Fold this protein.
Amino acid sequence: RGNDTWEHDKKPYKIKLDSKADLLGMGANKHWVLIAEYVDPTHIRNDVMPKISEALHMEYTAECRPVILVLNGEYNGLYHLSENIRIGSERVNIYDWEETAEDLAKAFYTAQKANGMTKDERDALEDALVEDLRWITDGTFTWNGTTYFVSDYLVIPSDITGGYLLELDTYDEYHVEQISDFDTENDQPVQFKNPEYACTNDTMFNYAKNYIQSFENAVMSADFYTEADGQTLHYSQLFDMDSLVKYWLMLELTSNSDGMRYSNYMYKDFGSLFKLGPAWDYDWTWNAGYTVPTDAWWVDQFYYNDTQHWLQYLVSDPYFLTEAYLCYQDAAEELTQMYADGGWIDQAAETVRDAAAADLAKWRPSYVFDDEIESRYTWLDAQFASVDTLMDSLGLEQSEKISIDSISASGSGGIAVTVSVSDASAKTVTVQMNGLHAASAPLQNGKATLEIPVSYLKSDAQSLNTLQVRAQLADGSYLITKTQSSGGGNQNPWGGNPWGWAEPEREANSSDSAFTVFTAAELGIQLVRGDVNNDGSFTLADLVMMQKYLLSDGDLTVWKNGDFDGSGTINAKDLTLMKQLYRQLF
């Protein structure tokens, strides 16, 4: 298995067992990989990666264990036996269309074996269903010249909005052709890992392609919004915000030179947004292979086949950085313990020290184990000292023409914001609260006052809220006084410029804006979790209002107070969590 690693003498391998097995306590599955880690002389990078993923509370973390491989009686060195990224109950736990094809073939075989259908024919039907997915939307499939209805043998989902595992991998551009893939308009290669034959079903293929393109359009727009399926959507309404933030932090903490280039996954299930992750393939991190300065941002590094990837735009969004700061602070104590002298990373190094030395003696005798262990944590931790420090470090600048004069609780229970704009060409101001458009108002003599509903605030009165103000011209376009900021990263990690690579730049969000971060408590606004009727307390009346809303029999006064799962929408899971809270309190 592998792309780059397969070119080396020490080979990586994929294992497929005859039946599912729980190897070394990592959960039952048929599919496993042996990671060679030829470019990682320490053999601990893929050990550390899952610990960081867990510290960040990423939804899924691929586990691995160090092992010694003896192949055909010959010592082959130190490897990591690892889960690979695939759909499964112990892996990425989303709907599996390929497994549905297997179930359909089995159900058809059960009905037809009395008519002489063999198990070999069942397996052949399964292959045919996996490799031609038109049956999912057509509702029929053909076998031996006869057409059958899927519903006669199996109940399948009535839509195709879930069950996607995709990968960002620029190898597709020049190395390995995939069965189903596409490039976004910004030249980001995307591959279907499951269902692998998505290209055989135009409806499914175009759904995923258009969805990803809409997200990219939002990320690259002046206000992080785009038009999609007749709606105006913010990028956080297309991709799960937590997953975006955590994935970026993962790349920064590890200075992953493969980040957003190779082996970067995303997935979507029914009833949820796309999510970036899980983290995978962390051989080329912490300065293995490429050299990433320990006192610079990973997102500002550029390599020979880099695109202008999505995260380079997202770090220009104050809301994104505020959420990243909060996520980092939540994980800070555990990260500090990991990196401390004698902490988990040092312990992991001691565990494999002798085995790694033996592996180096066989495969890379010029390398020294201790020389390869280094960290950028001290510098990175200092950048997260405060929200302002983080934004300053990444080059976010307040507008010189737009100012937020005041923010206060309004008499009607919302938030009053006063704004000044010094550019006479500006006619209107718009305010985004926690990413979402919250209000707009015309400018009069360069000033405007806006009323923002309290529902745009986070339900915890102590949580940080991000407010951003932009000015619009008469034609609706945004006031622009800045265009790009240089990334200042490596255009060639090996030095020189033998191929004539262009000087890279990280493009900033092009609209001029002013922004600030505050808590509801600072404004004297008290928010109560579950208080969807906004009467100041959480009672049975809120539960009734929530139930009626989900039955389309009413509305919520403050829907954010009912968003228990943090998805940005109200759904059945929120009602379940609200009921649990009610039982705990009453």
